[in-house]
Each structure stands twice: as C-alpha cells, then as structure tokens.
Design goal:
Elements lengths: L1 E7 L4 E6 L10 E7 L5 H19 L3 H8 L4 H4 L3 H5 L7 H14 L9 H19 L1 H31 L11 H60 L1 H20 L23
Antiparallel strand pairs: 1-2, 1-3
Helix pairs in contact: 2-6, 5-6, 7-8
Length: about 280
C-alpha cells in the first residue's frame, strides 16, 4: 500500500507516489487518495524536493519578509520580471495571477505595516506594477515571449557547447543536462532579456525626451519670434500717425518758406577804398 498524493497547487496539479507524507502549514491545499502500486525512490525525491520548495516559498509569506524580498539589494533588476515579483510560473492562468496579487498586496500594504510604511509603500507599488503588467494581455504576452526566447537561446547555447565538445573529441555531456541547472540557465537568461528590454525602453524614453525637449525649445523660439513681430507691428502702427504728422509739418514748412520773397544779399565788397597815405616825418 502506498499513498498517491495530489497537490492542489494554485499553479499546477501534480501526482506523486510516496511512502510517507505530512500536511504543511500555509495556504496550500492538499487532498489524499490511497492507491496500490510499486514505490519509486526517484519519484519520492522529486515529491520531497517540491514540498521543500513550497515550504521555502511559504516561509517568506510574511509582510516583513516580502517587503525585504521586494526591496533587497539588486531588487530593481529582479523586479523587472512581473512573474518573479509575484513568485509565479509564466504558465499561471490570469485568475491565479489575480489571486496571488491580492494576497501579496495585502501583505505589503502600508496600512498593515505602519511601523515601516515607507518601505511598505515602495513594495506595494512594485507588486501593483507587476499586476498591471500581467493584467494587460499584450504586456503579458510580451513577457511570455521573453520566456520563450530565453528557452530558445539556452537551447542554442547548449547545442554550441555540445558542438565544441564534439569538435574537441570530448564527451558531449553539459551541466545543463541536469534539469535544475537547465532551469537555472533559463532563469538567468530570462533576467538578462528583461534587463535588455528595460535598457532599450530607457534609451527610447531618453530619445523621446530629447525630441520633446528639442520641439519645446523650437516652439519657445518660434513663440518669442512671433511676439517680437507682433510687438514691432504694434509699434509701427502706433507711430504711423506721428510719422504722417511729421511729414505734413515738413511739407507745410517747406511751402511757407518757398512763398516768401528772397532778400537780395548785399555784396560784401561794394567798392574799393584804398588806405590813406601818411606823410613821412623826418
């Protein structure tokens, strides 16, 4: 007699054969059925490994630990992946994603962590951003494409390693043949791709910002030029009458001076009077 354990996990349902089992604390639900068959140490090891992973995952489901996880050094890099923020597999259905978001958002909500409300607010914003990303069908699809690309790149990397080993005449076994190491390699590639995507987004934002700044400066310059032209035109119109009056006064004075008779000028030297000669005295 062995036990067939069915784990009703929010992300997946799996069956494992085991010779012993125990109920774990936390939010996971379990149901148990009895079945006949031959035991398997390998299956039990897989079962026990997953149970320990669930225990480890549940152990951080406290408000303080979740806040520390979301704001730990380097968290900005890890939090680029919304599935990593919510601690979910990419295959998780949207209904389970929503449930997980609600649970996590309650844990880190500032009202529940008033002794550390500032950091709690930051963690809450991280969780909320992750949900907003996965809630959007287009954004969630883009994230799933990142996972798919990560797997393809990892597989390509493994093929290149095997090819190199074959060329060197060595055994073609690679570390990624171990499922755990393969999963880790995919995880690292996923993080790298999310980082690359964020870098491209920041670069595009920077270019857009520069373009907006350039357009704004151009608009300000055009506005100042338009104001200058309007001011010049206003001054020109206001001084028009003064110019007209000045011209009319000039014409009037010119006509008045031309109507007066011209006085004849006396010659400066009308006649020549020689100087008187003084008698010489001896």
């Amino acid at each position: 007699m062995i036990v067939l354990v069915r784990i009703l996990h929010p992300n997946r349902t799996r069956f494992f054969f085991a010779t012993q089992f125990r109920i774990l604390p936390g939010n996971q639900a379990f149901s148990f059925e009895m079945a006949h068959g031959s035991g398997s140490e390998e299956r039990f090891d897989d079962f026990y490994t997953e149970i320990k992973e669930i225990e480890k995952r549940d152990s951080v489901l406290t408000s303080k630990q979740q806040i520390e996880r979301l704001l730990r050094p380097g968290a900005t890099y890890f939090n680029l992946n919304p599935f990593e923020v919510l601690q979910l597999d990419p295959e998780t259905p949207i209904e389970q994603i929503k449930k997980r978001y609600r649970t996590l958002s309650i844990l880190v909500h500032p009202d529940k962590n008033q002794d550390n409300s500032e950091r709690a607010q930051q963690a809450f914003e991280v969780v909320n951003k992750a949900w907003k990303t996965l809630e959007n069908e287009v954004a969630r699809k883009r994230c799933l494409e990142v996972y798919q690309e990560a797997k393809e790149r990892t597989d390509q990397m493994i093929l290149e390693k095997r090819k190199k080993l074959r060329k060197e005449g060595k055994h073609e076994a690679v570390p990624e043949d171990d499922p755990d190491k393969y999963k880790h390699a995919v995880y690292v590639m996923v993080m790298k791709l999310f980082a690359d995507m964020e870098r491209r987004r920041q670069q595009q934002d920077s270019r857009d910002q520069e373009e907006r700044k350039r357009k704004r400066e151009q608009e300000i310059e055009e506005e100042e030029d338009r104001k200058y032209q309007q001011e010049w035109q206003k001054n020109f119109e206001e001084s028009r009458q003064n110019r007209v009056n000045s011209w009319q006064n000039f014409q009037a004075s010119a006509s008045t001076s031309s109507s007066k008779p011209k006085k004849s000028k006396k010659p400066k030297y009308a006649s020549f009077n020689p100087p008187k000669i003084k008698p010489e005295s001896r």
